[in-house]
Amino acid sequence: MEGLFSRAAVPFAIHGARKVDARGVAVHAWLVSDGRSIVATGDMDPEFESACRQFGIEASDIVDADGLVMTPGYVDIHAHGAWGESFDDGPDGVRTARAGHLTHGTTRQVLSLITNPIDEICANLEVVRGMMSARPDILGAHLEGPFLAMSRKGAHDPKCLVDPTPDLVGRMLDAADGCLRQITIAPELPHGLDAIRRFASAGVVPAVGHCDADYAMARMAFDAGAGIMTHMFNAMNGLRHRDPGPIPAAVEDPRVVIELINDGFHVQGPMVRLGFGLAPHRTAFVTDAMAATGCTDGHYLLGALDVDVEDGHARLASNGAIAGSTLLLEMAVVRAVSELGISPVDAVEAATLTPAKALGLDRRNDVTGHPIGLLALGYAADVLLVEPDTWMVRHVWCDGRAVR
Q1: Cβ distance 229 to 267 under 8 Å?
Q2: Is the CB of residue 265 less than 8 Å from the CB of residue 313?
Q3: CB neighbours of 86 closer than 8 A, spacing ≥ 6?
């Protein structure tokens, strides 16, 4: 996939589609791209023909969608790998894992790095930073650890969990050199709230997760600058009527985007529907996908920890704790629409505009220069054509380049 982005982007046009994005549905829709961004949209044939002439679209670069659903490219802000590789595995591992998600419609991705020794985390951040200039599909890094609660560590190596002291925060920011988009922090740690403030002031979005925080502590974290809740319901205190925990604090705060792993395993259907109802337009599908995504069942690694995957479910070999998922955003949308009765508009929004909003990329994109998350004028040319019945992805354009 590295070669994909070394090729020049080519202007293209799509017509005859049913457009679905966060703004609604349009039938017989079309769009024109100059090869980087969307420069014209509409639903009338004469206007389409005029736009193609205006922007010099050749007949060979016009795609007849023939009734397929057209959506923005999917945006995953929390995933660890695919196709047998993790985003911690160096440049070759990143390329392979990104290919596994990109071919299934995830056109932009934040690379989540697992808990490791600090030196290794900093080295992995430098890898991400180095790849971003050549890979506009890589939005930056997410650190899920090492600043997590021991009691809510999940599949993170307990030997590497530490308090976010000022010196460690400084080391990570220096190593990232601007590529760090998001960091999950347990705010109740001794330096948790101070770290949230410092990361937020540096332009990183802190996320509350893998924590033992109560309602009051979570509210303090959001007031300190946290803007995301890491995979709601997982690795945190649950909803209790006399001990509400951090979830109501996130639900009540309009500044907070809430991640949700819609695989039917981490979170079952009724709770996914509840999540959408609790925080409409603020629920973002994430995959938390690990290296086994797109692979057969078997033995894998998550950081330094052994993981067994059976029936597509990943668990630590040592204690059976859930160890990420094998989910693709494609399947999160399929499941939402086909199994859970969530409207296509809401499902697509959760996989596109909402995750982009979580990082401010719906307004700008310092990787591509164009915002992402909608099929609208000025937005990046990230486009999917999807089967109307199954919602499986048929065709993918990323940053104006045809992927499949």
Answers
A1: no
A2: yes
A3: 80, 93, 97, 114, 290, 291, 301, 302, 303
Who has greater pLDDT, 324 or 344? Answer: 344
Check whether 366 has a pLDDT greater than 80. Answer: no
Tokens 């922007």 belong to which residue? Answer: 55
Predicted confidence band of residue 125 (pLDDT cuts 50, 70, 90): very high
What is the mean pLDDT of the segment spanning 329-357? 98
Q: Which of 142-156, 173-187, 296-310, 329-343 has the lowest mean pLDDT?
A: 296-310
Question: Which pTM value belongs to this model?
Answer: 0.96
Q: For the chain, what is the mean pLDDT?
A: 95
Distance of CA 125 to the CA centre of its chain: 17
Percent of the chain topping pLDDT 70: 99
Q: What is the mean pLDDT of residues 293-310?
A: 88
Q: Which candidate, 225, 227, 286, places its Cα nearest to that of 256?
A: 227
